[in-house]
């Protein structure tokens, strides 16, 4: 017996709310650690020549979080007994937790080194998420490729900031 269209719509809407809530929570947690430390601490750091202007980060992260929520929603909608779904979700939430932790380690603790320590496993978890999502939903996997690219770039920035500021 298949679910009725209204039941499927309610289920999908519930998953959409869950996906959005998860990424919004991480975004807010990151902002709590970041915004109070932009000035004077972050503003006083030496930055590499390839550091983008501050206004770039908001639109980029908003786009990445929307893509993450959409990807999560697609995977949540899969049958719970779908092989690989549980592991894919575990990887996703692990990378999401590391994403939230980075702002606290880098900005709140004023430690580019701790931020870098977070980025290594974060990149591994993002890659694992992309691979595991690709096995069960290719669109969801492709939605996370920009995240991997941006966090790779952010890792280079983080290394440069750490080296320039000892």
Overview of this structure, please?
The protein is mainly alpha-helical and 166 residues long. It has one domain (5-165): TspO/MBR protein (Ferritin, Up-down Bundle). 83% of the residues lie in helices and 0% in strands. It contains six helices and no strands. It starts with a helix and ends with a helix.
Relevant terms:
elongated; mainly alpha; Ferritin
Brief summary:
By secondary structure, this protein is mostly helical.
**How much is the average pLDDT?**
96
- Globally, the shape reads elongated
Flag low-confidence runs.
Answer: none
Number of helices: 6
Q: SSE string, helix = H, strand = E?
A: HHHHHH
- Give the CATH architecture: Up-down Bundle
Q: What proportion of the residues form beta strands (DSSP E)?
A: under 5%
Q: What is the CATH topology assignment? A: Ferritin
Helix and strand content put the structural class at mainly alpha
Helix content: over 70%
Name of the CATH first level: Mainly Alpha
Q: End-to-end span in angstroms?
A: 63 Å
- What's the name of the CATH homologous superfamily? TspO/MBR protein
> How many independent structural domains?
1
Radius of gyration: 17 Å
Question: How would you sum up the major sheet?
Answer: none
- Total strands: 0
Could you outline the blueprint of secondary structure elements for this entry?
Elements: H1 5-34, H2 38-44, H3 54-76, H4 85-108, H5 112-136, H6 138-165
